[in-house]
């Protein structure tokens, strides 16, 4: 009864937002991504759930965003014109190309059922991508950053509770097998939790660029250690490495380089203090290679299997979504793989094994297009990336979206969610919207 009540309240609230405040659905999606535990809030929907997949707040919010955008397309001529312009953008075309290539792999797929599921999931995410781009406007461009930043901060009490008490509220039976307690809060996997916290850190940097009140900026600075504490409690080595790489990228792409340098220094100081207090974390970092060979052999075996599949099917792969099937049928003999290990592999190896060299070329083209959007905005705004300044706000937002996409990509090499992560599609939508908006503004000024 409680689950049905929560379901009805969720649908009612989302319905109100669709009609009254569609823009608020976008930051809600960012917050919903953090609530993987929401899959336990709702009742079993039977056949409907088999068609839609696992019911969660993220899925409900995604569908609501699409419905809200459809209403605007139907009633507003300007939105229809914007939709046509979005379809001409290289990022949009390459995302469509990836989906079309995945659909083409049905011809030779080793698992047609999984291929169909992946195609449908990508189509839904593509619809979310277009819908976000249509719903965004200049006044709400920072809403997604606020949504993820606030959601990441809101998880702090729960993370501290789990870290201090040792009581994991969800998926504890899977995580307590580890030698070191790894906090997961509302996420299935601590590594995904770590990824979300890095998204929150990037959001903090972007929001600070738009914050000119010194006291408020100090508040945002005070939030960064709170996010770092949560990241360390996850025990995610991949998360720490991802944060380091993202901060280096931030030095190149974000204009507020002084903030990034200060934060890097604070991270180094905090790491020293933490390692003095909890040396087992440092030991776990040093034993990364040994852990791969001893405590996590399945990851190494899966890498071997991915390389073997790619070697056997180098050009076209074995079909979108077929990695697990091919692995179980033909490559499990490499080692005695524990149950469930087939879901833990890197994005690059997954794409290489499922879609071959052509799939990797499409992935490369996507990054070229994303960097192209960023470069276009950089040139249009005449920014100087090497200068220690906090100007050029439109470019700064685009750089934030780029760093979000890079965070998802880098962390997905240790946990294979890349195209499946809504934040990637949100980031692409933001970049496409900003580029189109800026070019429209330049055209209107020139007239």
UniProtKB/TrEMBL annotation:
<feature type="transmembrane region" description="Helical">
    <location>
        <begin position="192"/>
        <end position="211"/>
    </location>
</feature>
<feature type="transmembrane region" description="Helical">
    <location>
        <begin position="119"/>
        <end position="136"/>
    </location>
</feature>
<dbReference type="Pfam" id="PF04932">
    <property type="entry name" value="Wzy_C"/>
</dbReference>
<keyword id="KW-0472">Membrane</keyword>
<keyword id="KW-1133">Transmembrane helix</keyword>
<feature type="transmembrane region" description="Helical">
    <location>
        <begin position="260"/>
        <end position="277"/>
    </location>
</feature>
<feature type="transmembrane region" description="Helical">
    <location>
        <begin position="355"/>
        <end position="375"/>
    </location>
</feature>
<feature type="transmembrane region" description="Helical">
    <location>
        <begin position="223"/>
        <end position="254"/>
    </location>
</feature>
<feature type="domain" description="O-antigen ligase-related">
    <location>
        <begin position="226"/>
        <end position="363"/>
    </location>
</feature>
<dbReference type="GO" id="GO:0016874">
    <property type="term" value="F:ligase activity"/>
</dbReference>
<dbReference type="GO" id="GO:0016020">
    <property type="term" value="C:membrane"/>
</dbReference>
<feature type="transmembrane region" description="Helical">
    <location>
        <begin position="148"/>
        <end position="172"/>
    </location>
</feature>
<protein>
    <submittedName>
        <fullName>O-antigen ligase</fullName>
    </submittedName>
</protein>
<dbReference type="InterPro" id="IPR007016">
    <property type="entry name" value="O-antigen_ligase-rel_domated"/>
</dbReference>
<keyword id="KW-0812">Transmembrane</keyword>
<feature type="transmembrane region" description="Helical">
    <location>
        <begin position="87"/>
        <end position="107"/>
    </location>
</feature>
<keyword id="KW-0436">Ligase</keyword>
<dbReference type="InterPro" id="IPR051533">
    <property type="entry name" value="WaaL-like"/>
</dbReference>
């Amino acid at each position: 009864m409680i689950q049905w009540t929560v379901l009805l309240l969720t649908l009612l609230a989302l319905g109100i937002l669709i009609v009254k405040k569609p823009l608020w659905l976008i930051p809600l999606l960012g917050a919903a991504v953090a609530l993987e535990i929401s899959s336990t809030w709702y009742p079993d929907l039977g056949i409907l759930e088999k068609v839609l997949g696992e019911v969660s707040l993220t899925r409900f919010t995604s569908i609501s965003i699409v419905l809200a955008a459809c209403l605007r397309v139907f009633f507003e001529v300007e939105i229809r014109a914007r939709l046509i312009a979005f379809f001409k953008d290289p990022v949009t075309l390459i995302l469509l190309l990836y989906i079309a290539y995945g659909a083409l792999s049905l011809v030779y797929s080793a698992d047609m059922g999984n291929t169909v599921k992946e195609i449908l999931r990508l189509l839904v995410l593509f619809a979310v991508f277009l819908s976000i781009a249509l719903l965004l406007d200049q006044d709400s461009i920072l809403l997604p950053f606020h949504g993820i930043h606030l959601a990441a901060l809101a998880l702090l009490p729960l993370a501290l509770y789990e870290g201090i008490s040792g009581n994991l509220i969800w998926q504890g039976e899977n995580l307590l097998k580890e030698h070191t307690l790894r906090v997961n809060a509302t996420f299935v996997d601590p590594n995904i939790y770590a990824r979300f916290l890095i998204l929150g850190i990037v959001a903090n940097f972007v929001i600070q660029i738009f914050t000119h009140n010194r006291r408020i900026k100090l508040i945002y600075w005070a939030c960064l250690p709170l996010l770092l504490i949560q990241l360390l409690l996850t025990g995610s080595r991949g998360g720490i490495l991802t944060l380091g790489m993202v901060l280096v990228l931030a030095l190149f792409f974000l204009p507020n380089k002084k903030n990034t340098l200060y934060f890097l220094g604070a991270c180094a100081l905090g790491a020293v203090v933490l390692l003095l207090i909890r040396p087992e974390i440092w030991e776990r970092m040093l034993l990364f290679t040994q852990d791969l060979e001893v405590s996590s052999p399945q990851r190494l075996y899966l890498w071997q299997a991915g390389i073997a599949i790619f070697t056997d099917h180098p050009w076209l792969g074995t079909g979108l979504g077929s990695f697990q099937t091919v692995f179980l049928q033909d490559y499990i003999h490499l080692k005695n793989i524990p149950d469930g290990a087939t879901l833990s592999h890197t994005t690059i190896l997954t794409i290489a094994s499922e879609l071959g060299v052509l799939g990797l070329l499409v992935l490369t083209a996507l990054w070229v297009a994303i960097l192209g959007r960023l470069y276009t905005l950089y040139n249009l705004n005449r920014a100087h990336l090497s200068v220690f300044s906090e100007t050029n706000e439109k470019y700064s937002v685009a750089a934030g979206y780029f760093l979000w996409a890079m965070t998802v990509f880098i962390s997905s090499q240790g946990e294979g969610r890349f195209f499946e992560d809504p934040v990637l599609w949100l980031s692409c939508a933001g970049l496409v919207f900003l580029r189109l908006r800026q070019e429209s503004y330049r055209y209107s000024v020139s007239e």
